[in-house]
Structure formats: structure tokens, C-alpha cells
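Please check this protein record:
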Amino acid sequence: MKILIINGPNLNNLGKRDPALYGAGTLADIEKRVAVLAEELGVEVAFFQSNHEGSIVDFIQESAPGADGVAINPGALTHYGVSLRDALQDSKLPFVEVHISNIHAREEFRHRSVLVDIAAGQIAGLGLNGYLYALDYLAGILKSS
């Protein structure tokens, strides 16, 4: 079983980017913690981050045939990434939308997600642990199907 772990714009700056909102953990910290859990669950993971929507779409299109699910923190693409939505929908892979901060307790424009209605679920506001919960959930539903 293989799960793609995708991060969108500005998530490469975690640890430096507004630590009061996003915490002190870096993207490398997230990847290490996810890799440990993936090994415990017997799941293969592939990590990808880009600040460009087209690169993320390309990654999904190229990787989906060999994958079983996706955990994605789309960053700002959450609110307007229609081509990202189309790529996820076309992949036919179950995915969980992850946000480190609680997007529903922030600015009004952050409350809307163009992905959530096609997602298996959304995790927001649980910090770096949201990635772990998403991986655990996906592994569970994929093993049971």
C-alpha cells in the first residue's frame, strides 16, 4: 500500500513561517514522523512539496497509478486550486485534506475549501499530528476495503 503525502505552497517554510500559528516543526520533522508511523503501519509513503499548483498536479497524475491514497496539505490552494481539485478527483484515490492551523477559526476567505466535498475527510487545527491522523485513517480504510 502506498500513500502520497503532498504539501502545497509555503509549507517548505514551516519552522520559520509564523511559529505562533504553525508551530516550530519543519517539513522535514513532519516527514520523519510520518515515515516512522508509515513503517509501523506497513505503508509506503512518497513525499512531495511544491509552491506551484501545476507541479502538484503533475505529481498526482504521474504518481496516482501506483498509489492507493493521498494526504494533502494544499496550503493556499485549498481556497482556489480548481486544477488541483480536478487532478485529485481524476486520480480516483481517497484523500484527506490536512491543515496545521484551524482554517475555520481564521480569516473568512480561509473557511472555504474547493476540495473538502470530494475528500474522504478534513483535519484542521491539530498541528503536525494532523498528518499522522490522516495517514492512520487512510491506512485503515484502505486495509479494510
